[in-house]
Write a structure and sequence with these properties.
484 residues, alpha/beta, FAD/NAD(P)-binding domain, eight-stranded mixed β-sheet, five-stranded parallel β-sheet, 15 helices, 31% helix, globular, FAD/NAD-bd_sf, FAD-bind_Monooxygenase_sf
Amino acid sequence: MHTYAVLIIGSGFGGQCAAVNLLKAGIDDFRILERRDFFGGTWCQNTYPGAAVDVPSPLYSLSFAPYRWSQMFAEQAELRRYTEQLIEQFGLRERVELQADVERVEWDEAEKRWAVHTRAKGIFHTQFLINASGPLSQPVIPHFPGMDRFQGKTFHTNNWDHSYDYRGKRVAIVGSGASAAQVIPAIAPQVEQLHVFQRTPHWVLPRADRKFGRFQRWLLALKPAYKLLRWLIYWQFETRVIAFKYSRPAIHLVQQHALRFLKRQVPDPLLREKLTPDFTIGCKRVLVSSTYYPALSRANVTLHSREHGIASIDESGINTVDGEHLEVDLIVWSTGYDATDGVISYPVSGKNAVQLRDVWAEYPRAYLGTSLPDFPNLFIVTGPNTGIGHTSALFIIESQMNYILDCIRTVRAKGLRSIEVRRDAERTYTAMIHREMQRTVWKSGGCQSWYQSKSGHVIAMFPGFSFSYHLLTRALKPTDHILS
């Protein structure tokens, strides 16, 4: 039996940030559970061609860990190196349990602790449980008739098979979101034929990337310079919320800019029509790429819109809705993740055997997107309504840590055993979130997106400025909690 003061589920940036903050708070009795056989999360798992961050690297990093980035928008290999540097710098490798796939977790009211059942590593017990598995960790592959008959190769972008040589092959990519917009330009010049299946077009803005010179990289290693650059980028990006929520004229200007970019990069009027969204920019995730449109314009690339989409799959390829048969060697699923209803993939049983799946049956919700009544000492990193559409997710994660660590420190300092958010506090917070959401483009922009749960509630996004969330999480509000 393994017993720790704190358990962290997931070893990506959320788990790493939690671990470092625990160490800084003088809490070293913790363990990180990782379901895979390697440490690191998103940027060690997502190795598809073209993988890169779409937030400037100096901001998409942890405030306490500067790095000499080679370019403004780091590619996957560099993000992996940054991840590995964090792991080594803070001695996290010896604190991880690999291949510890969590099957279920249960609250023991008598012992005031969580029992975490894993598939291969037995049961772990802990006073405090931090779920940092992340919202983009459960890949989704849609079902099509006959897909099990396909004799070629298939995989999701999340599990790219590098043993398969796609060069010179006939390839189909299903999906046209952020991952597809990176894969398509990376492989289009190397394949014989590329079929892209698009359900709905996305708005695209140019990627203002640049390489950093030797002197600039030296400056990035200096904390004052790094901090200054982070804040300059942060406040520039923070103004985007004005368009997403407060100003229709502002979002109209951004949309006109996107339309001009589309016209400039796609001279073919028929292809341009297929690529023009019918919803307000920002309603779905905005793609940031200067190579996506040119790749779709290549002679060996065919864009199939919804009316020419997939009807079924057979042994040799894809049958389209309009009766065409496309022979392909490889089908790549670039179809995203269960980022709303599947925020936590394993069963969670709280006080009095209350099931998280029942609490979230209508739609996922949590106080500060982090804690829930009936689930003491449980904290969800990047939980419901903590996503951010205009800046770095790591800023939100670090803000959550202020609240989580304050909760843990308070319980320990008072010699108590548990902390639980009050039901009325969670309800008041959730009502505020969805009241404020009505004003945002994510709710009123005229689209259906992965930001929304099956109920229609926008679950992925926080409806305001990220500094507003930071202020909400800056310190524990004792009156909102039950301490025992």
